[in-house]
Write a structure and sequence with these properties.
Layout: E1 2-4, H1 10-23, E2 28-32, E3 36-41, H2 50-57, E4 58-63, H3 68-80, H4 82-86, H5 97-114, H6 119-137, H7 143-149, H8 157-162, H9 166-179, H10 202-213, H11 238-250, H12 254-260, H13 267-278, H14 283-288, H15 300-318, H16 329-338, H17 350-356, E5 370-372, H18 377-383, E6 402-404
């Protein structure tokens, strides 16, 4: 990732670093000014203190003229991967967004169990919270919607959790259950209406609030150093969320997974299988067929298949060159109507989240509620602050199509 600045501004670069760290796609950020090239690691966490952050993330600062040879070597090292070997301390795996999110999921799960929830209830509550956070960060569930769902008591998920009042959370679930199909919001701690009821206590809400903020390391012994940026689902690619979810479920003991019959397929393998089958499927089946996957894990086959179906619907509706990052409500409604699926309760809950990638699926709103989606989130974040001039690659975040919002 390469960015040009007229004048180096530490705070601006820290903000951009935080967005890119959440993406988890790039490993190196090069900041160019008129006389200096600065190389930052995107694997290091964006800390609250900008001076400490710079000291820990800045790999090299080179004079663009005097250090021309060193700059050339830096670029070669970055392209070859040698930079990661020579500066391994700047690229620690435990500081990347996927590992930080997984660590906090695991730590929060342990605390929720310690405070009285069952293992299944704690897992369900965390996944439900993560999905609501995803909807909120992507601008699908808006402040007005949250206010209406909580009787005006809260206008954000943070506010719901910080109030330590379980009735607000139940009110939000009731509203979400009406607006979304499926069993994700049957009740806090459960994906099955017949499952035993578990009470959500103030201590549980406090743990969820810490997890939602994402600004601290929740694992035992991690200390209390805060990051300026928590994890932000506005920038985190859905593929990364799905992969973390797979790993979170996969960390159960082998005996428990065998007992539950849970299996987790890597995304690349699911893509390979779907691509191999797709070319053999008759044309009529691609638009009007039924697709079944028992989903004995996280439902990754349904996630990737549903995304492919949406791209096909979008291509037919808007032309083959139309980029589908945020599917329209109509496309989602059509896909859900024509392509039914079955998945195991609980383990497949992220299939919906992954399949829609922020498009407000499972809800069939009137057409007038759809609105044009914004430009890609990362580019918008950077350009609105006047410091993004040149960027390599295409940031995830969604452009094209239409995005449904609630509220």
């Amino acid at each position: 990732m390469i960015v040009e600045l007229d004048v180096y501004d530490r705070k601006q670069v820290l903000n951009l670093h935080g967005a890119l760290w959440n993406q988890g796609l790039a490993t190196l950020l090069l900041v160019l000014t008129s006389d200096t090239v600065r190389a930052f690691s995107l694997a290091r966490k964006p800390l609250e203190d900008e001076h400490i952050w710079e000291a820990e993330c800045l790999i090299q600062a080179l004079d663009a003229i005097a250090d021309a040879l060193a700059l050339k070597n830096l670029l070669y090292a970055a392209e070859s991967g040698r930079l990661l070997e020579e500066h391994a301390s700047y690229f620690r795996a435990d500081e990347r967004i996927d590992q930080v999110l997984l660590d906090n999921l695991t730590a929060a799960h342990a605390v929720l169990k310690r405070d009285g929830l069952s293992a299944e209830g704690a897992q369900a509550l965390l996944i439900q919270t993560m999905f609501i956070a995803y909807l909120e960060d992507r601008g699908i569930v808006l402040r007005k919607y949250l206010q209406e769902a909580t009787g005006g008591a809260a206008n954000s998920l943070d506010a719901v959790l910080m109030a330590r009042d379980a009735t607000l959370l139940h009110g939000l679930f009731e509203r979400l259950r009406r607006d979304f199909n499926g069993d994700l919001f049957v009740a806090p701690c459960a994906f099955d209406a017949e499952a035993p009821t578990e009470s959500v206590l103030p201590a549980h809400l406090a743990t969820l609030a810490r997890f939602r903020s994402g600004r601290e390391e929740m694992r035992e012994g991690a200390g209390c150093q805060l990051r300026l940026w928590g994890y932000d689902f506005k920038y985190i690619p859905i593929e990364l969320v799905s992969a973390v979810y797979d790993r979170f479920l996969g960390e159960r003991s082998k005996d428990e997974r065998r007992k539950k019959g849970a299996y987790y397929t890597p995304m690349f393998l699911a893509d390979t299988a779907i691509s191999a089958l797709w070319d053999t499927v008759p044309e009529k089946t691609r638009t009007q067929g039924d697709f079944l996957d028992p989903a004995c894990g996280s439902g990754i086959f349904l996630v990737r298949l549903f995304q492919r179906l949406l791209r096909r619907l979008a291509a037919k509706a808007w032309g083959h060159n139309h980029p589908l990052e945020q599917p329209s409500c109509h496309a989602v409604a059509t896909a859900r109507t024509r392509h039914r699926s079955q998945r195991s309760s609980g383990d497949g809950v992220l299939a919906l989240c992954g399949a829609v990638a922020g498009g407000g699926a499972a809800r069939h709103p009137p057409a007038h509620e759809a609105r044009p989606a914004a430009s890609p989130a990362l580019e918008k974040h950077a350009s609105s602050r006047g410091f993004l001039r040149r960027v390599g690659g295409t940031p995830e975040g969604g452009c094209g199509g239409r995005q449904s919002t609630l509220g």
